[in-house]
Amino acid sequence: MRHRFDLFQRLPGRCWLARAVVGVLALTGCASTTTARRRLPPLQTVPHVELQRYLGRWYEIASFPQWFQRGCTGSSAEYTMRDDGELGVVNRCRKGSLDGPEDVARGRARVVDSATGAKLEVSFFRPFWGDYWIVDLGSDYEFAVVGHPSRDYLWILCRKPIMEPGTYEAILGRLRAQGYEVERLVRTAQPGVTR
Known about the structure:
Structural class: alpha+beta
Number of strands: 9
Number of helices: 5
Number of domains: 1
CATH architecture: Beta Barrel
Distance between the termini: 40 Å
Order of helices and strands: HHHHEEEEEEEEHE
Largest sheet: 8 strands, antiparallel, barrel
CATH class: Mainly Beta
Strand order of the largest sheet: 1-2-3-4-5-6-7-8
Shape: globular
CATH topology: Lipocalin
CATH superfamily: Calycin beta-barrel core domain
């Protein structure tokens, strides 16, 4: 495991999401994940994802705090279709404050479960890939929830920088039913949104 964690130190400071992928990969080999520790059943994804409808910009509404995202505000992700059939991924955040410098990470994603389209892998530098599972999704693709089989990573995303309170609470209920410790979620500051 040591060589995986050593990679964190060699990555440029601005590549926070690249470090996230390495973290997910390192976590995969650990026996102390939330799923194993709490003896939870395997994480369930949504039954079907239409990739064309998933494309576009998503705003981070809340996430489990991770050291590699420390100081990030106004986080968003944009997905595009590449010529090779994979997805292009561009993640952005502002460091320190909503007026802080922009941090950008560019990567790609690929579907690993063609039956549902809900299990993907994301890479921000080769040859490392991290699991990206869509565990909840609005009927009009107005929100999405991305997790990891370990349940130690979680992001709630929305097409707008703000989410209706009722929608957010309903998502939390479904996440609790999946064994997520939703009290760990921290809301993400977005431009023009007051809480």
